[in-house]
Amino acid sequence: MSDTALRLGTRRSRLALAQSGQVAEAVSQVTGRPVELVEITTYGDTSREHLAQIGGTGVFVTALRDALLAGEVDFAVHSLKDLPTAQPEGLTLAAVPVREDPRDVLVARDALKLTDLPRRARIGTGSPRRTAQLNAYARAHGLEFEMVAIRGNVDTRIRYVHDGELDAVVLAAAGLNRIGRAGEVTDFLSIDAVLPAPGQGALAIECAAGNADLVAALGELDDPFTRAAVTAERSLLAALEAGCSAPVGALADLLADGQIVKEMRLRGVVGTTDGSRTVQLSTTGPVPETHDQATTLGRELAAEMLAQGAAGLMGERAH
């Protein structure tokens, strides 16, 4: 490989630039080549509509993929939860690095925790998945939340709380960690209460499938456990035929006996946004060693969820 700079395509948001900057450093170490960030504006960045309305799937990804296919950038970094489940012709997912904390967190006024929030607390999120699960949690615990649909970057969302417009917002722990604002977190939401989005906390490094040298170099950043987990989660999402704006939560984690990893557990949930009905199931099996094994784990759990009526809970977003 030459010593010319590699061009990394990234969204312009503070979070995207932070993520891409971290990857750029790692790629530079692996390849010995400088990496320059190429900022690309996506439809999801410019549209003022709510993500669920513009069909969340791919709105932050398409422009980056177009730039890759056109040869304007050499590789791109995505938040894996934004990626549509179908892989486009000509591009390959070269690496899924070690995952950050996949949990959702609360940033609330007065350092409140979820259980401390007052009745009819105003909680901001743009996610039907978070809305569905928090409303279900409230119903189960005799609480009542007023869920408020919001857009905007992390800083904008936190400002709603600081300005007193909202009692709390729900964000991804990984994003706050990556931009150095983890200190804002007032509560980590238990996985038992709110399952994250499939792939949450993980990054996807994508490049042209034909660039064998670059595919191999980027592959050194791949974490096999993270890849197996997110593959299972995304397989569940695909088998439910739901896009990334549907109210689907999923998390695959490793079950260890001491230092020895024994099994992988996959949990999935789908629910109506008012929290009145949910289907939540889990399955446990050997740690997948191939893409097909991870995919099968997700597909089988999705089949069980569909048998229990999951499709009817996703509304018009299920195609």
Summarize the structure.
It contains nine helices and 13 strands. It is of the alpha/beta class and 319 residues long.
Provide a descriptive summary of the structure in words:
This protein has 319 residues and is α/β, with parallel strands linked by helices. It is 31% helix and 25% strand. It contains nine helices and 13 strands. A five-stranded mixed β-sheet has the order 2-1-3-10-4, with helices on both faces. Strands 7-6-8-5-9 form a five-stranded mixed β-sheet, with helices on both faces. Strands 11-12-13 form a three-stranded antiparallel β-sheet. α8 (224-239) runs parallel beside α9. The longest helix has 18 residues, at 14-31. It is globular. The N and C termini lie far apart (44 Å).
Number of helices: 9
The gross shape turns out to be globular
- Main sheet, how many strands, which sense, barrel? 5 strands, mixed
Tell me the structural class: alpha/beta
Alpha carbon gap, first and last residue:
44 Å
Neighbour order of strands in the largest sheet: 2-1-3-10-4
The chain-level mean pLDDT equals: 89
- The portion of residues forming beta strands comes to 15-25%
Order of helices and strands: EHEHHEEEEHEHEHEEHHEEEH
Which residues form runs of ≥5 with pLDDT under 50?
A: 50-56
List keywords for this structure.
single chain, alpha/beta, five-stranded mixed beta sheet
Set down the secondary structure blueprint.
Layout: E1 6-10, H1 14-31, E2 35-39, H2 43-46, H3 62-69, E3 75-79, E4 91-95, E5 104-108, E6 121-125, H4 128-140, E7 145-149, H5 154-162, E8 168-172, H6 173-178, E9 187-188, E10 203-208, H7 212-219, H8 224-239, E11 248-257, E12 260-271, E13 278-286, H9 291-307
Parallel strand pairs: 1-2, 1-3, 6-7, 6-8
Antiparallel strand pairs: 3-10, 4-10, 5-8, 5-9, 11-12, 12-13
